Amino acid sequence: MPNKLLDVVMKFNLLFLAIISGVTSSHASAETGADTKIRIGEIIEVTGHSKKQLSPEVVGSVDVIGRDQLENEHVNITMDLFKKVPGVYFSRFNQGVVSADIAIRGFNGEGSLPHTKLLIDGVPSNLHNGLSEMDALFPLEISQVEVVKGTNDPRYGLHNLAGNYHMTSRRDVDVNQVELLLGSFNTKEAQAYVSRESGDFSQHYFAGVRQTDGYRDQAELDKHTFSGKWFYQASENTEIGVIARYFNYDAQAPGYLTREEARKNPEQSAEYASDDEGTKTTKHLSLHVDHNFSDDNALSLKIYRQQFERERFVRFTASASQQERQEDEKQWGVIVQHGYQINDEWLMQSGFDYHAQDNRHQRFKTVNKKRTAATRDHDFEFINYGAFTQIEHKFSDKLTWIAGVRADKFDGDFVDVISTSKRDIHDYDVIVQPKFSVIAEPNEQVTFFANWGESFQTGIGKGAYAAPGTNFDVSKNTGWEFGTKWQPTSELTLRLSSWQQDASDELVMKTDGSGDFGNIGETERKGWDFAFQWSATKNTYVWGSYTDQQAKLTEPGGNQQLQKGSWLRSVPDYTASFGIDHYLTSNLKGSVYGSYQGNSHISDTNTYGKFGQYSLIDLALDYQADWGNIGLRISNLFDRYYEYVYLLGEEAIYSPGDGRAINVSWSYQF
């Protein structure tokens, strides 16, 4: 066992023994059942509200976090809910409206290389640059979170380089719920979910607001959201629904510190960043239609229109000028998926999607938030057409194979308003992506799986459009995974897999502020994943995961041969998570969660050191009554220092993570 994994396991086991030894003397008679389980270690998961929709199946590392594990969480940023998901790691900027991003499979979470598709209720929810925008969802509104890792999922093209995240909002009608919270740093939160059903018509409403002063100085946050969902069962075979959502987020930014400042006093803000702040808004409207022509023939249709707006004032160092960054992105599209069960052995799925963006990105030099000069004004249209088909064949009771292919095409144009220059999108032609998976089940306890597929990456912003006399091809990723899922008993599930992704002509955003992209050459990402879930007793549920990974530049482009073999920046060498849910009494549950992340290089040359390692423990107590819940949560229980570090030119800048926080919540169901 690697030393770093052994260290993580030993630390967690000591904490486990301490917690359990303190509570086993209490009376415990509750049946934990499925209420406390995280579906970690899934191999096949069907996405959608209904199995009869015949949605495409995905073979590989699929993990699901259910509402029972989410609704009592309380976070400033929704991404923090992903810390329980195997293989997911964080870049925590902690800078107001740009607070964090998450990543998988050896890619970094800094937005320089879009690699993961986000969908909310089946609708794409990435910004143009690939960053995931999910803060409009509060924990109480989320039904489940599903993460699919790898290159073999044919359903999505754009941003689906290493996998996808799918978040589903609540549509249950049996519970109405109100929740209030008070916590550290003057944190206040209120959430409410109300639903009504009358005959074939159901209504679902959610409202949430959160305010906090933040751990660091000048880190105030104020966000609120409202959503409505209306669904009508027009017939036994047809359901029609509309989802609308509005979200607003205002936040200050405490700025970056020097190494000495951050470690001496992590709660301070940078004096030069006293005017840094920002706001972001999401407006969403979508139509959802599901129709079953028969039990073996189903169609799903989604039509959506949404707008993401961001305004941010930022100053990275004392020697830098303040900037104002404005982004206005309008998106609309159509998604159609069809499933046809030919017979007991053959299933065919296919789909088509159209996604269009009308974007305006502007930047200004400012002094005390007053504009002095325009430095960027990009107005561009970005259009993606995609289609897929997939055949699943149950060859025998013990062997199933799935083969599919996806094709994508892009269109659009770009105008630099300041220089009045124009560009057309790079001529990528049709991007064909074959996929293949196989599942072998020699017995009821053991499953072997393997998958192979191609995915792609395009440039974004200015980098997606060709300057006169130039043209870039897409970057192709070829990936594979093989592994096993083993259930030695009905209480224990384990999954172990090995994976690799190789990229040609990888594109990375330049750091010169131009908005353009550069080709860094060929890269290799590989690693192995382990995940388990264990119902140790009728009152105790344990889960955990560990991912070891490498990400290297194998063949640099141009004159960068000295970087050959270098680790890619901002990719931690491991990530892990562990958790225990234990019922102390029939109504009182105690939970301990640990999240761990390794160091990563902050430069492509690997000459500026490695940073970012952390080991964080959270503790939760929940008293469940017939009328609702009273909860206590302590995040970063041992008040451990951790930090995000970024290399800006030749200077490393530091953003400390949050210290210990305590909050108390009260939830009432009616």
From TrEMBL:
<feature type="signal peptide">
    <location>
        <begin position="1"/>
        <end position="30"/>
    </location>
</feature>
<keyword id="KW-0798">TonB box</keyword>
<dbReference type="InterPro" id="IPR000531">
    <property type="entry name" value="Beta-barrel_TonB"/>
</dbReference>
<dbReference type="Pfam" id="PF07715">
    <property type="entry name" value="Plug"/>
</dbReference>
<comment type="similarity">
    <text>Belongs to the TonB-dependent receptor family.</text>
</comment>
<feature type="region of interest" description="Disordered">
    <location>
        <begin position="259"/>
        <end position="281"/>
    </location>
</feature>
<dbReference type="InterPro" id="IPR037066">
    <property type="entry name" value="Plug_dom_sf"/>
</dbReference>
<dbReference type="GO" id="GO:0015344">
    <property type="term" value="F:siderophore uptake transmembrane transporter activity"/>
</dbReference>
<feature type="domain" description="TonB-dependent receptor-like beta-barrel">
    <location>
        <begin position="246"/>
        <end position="637"/>
    </location>
</feature>
<dbReference type="Pfam" id="PF00593">
    <property type="entry name" value="TonB_dep_Rec_b-barrel"/>
</dbReference>
<keyword id="KW-0812">Transmembrane</keyword>
<keyword id="KW-1134">Transmembrane beta strand</keyword>
<keyword id="KW-0813">Transport</keyword>
<dbReference type="GO" id="GO:0009279">
    <property type="term" value="C:cell outer membrane"/>
</dbReference>
<protein>
    <submittedName>
        <fullName>TonB-dependent receptor</fullName>
    </submittedName>
</protein>
<keyword id="KW-0675">Receptor</keyword>
<keyword id="KW-0472">Membrane</keyword>
<feature type="domain" description="TonB-dependent receptor plug">
    <location>
        <begin position="58"/>
        <end position="163"/>
    </location>
</feature>
<dbReference type="InterPro" id="IPR012910">
    <property type="entry name" value="Plug_dom"/>
</dbReference>
<keyword id="KW-0998">Cell outer membrane</keyword>
<dbReference type="InterPro" id="IPR039426">
    <property type="entry name" value="TonB-dep_rcpt-like"/>
</dbReference>
<dbReference type="InterPro" id="IPR036942">
    <property type="entry name" value="Beta-barrel_TonB_sf"/>
</dbReference>
<keyword id="KW-0410">Iron transport</keyword>
<keyword id="KW-0406">Ion transport</keyword>
<keyword id="KW-0732">Signal</keyword>
<keyword id="KW-0408">Iron</keyword>
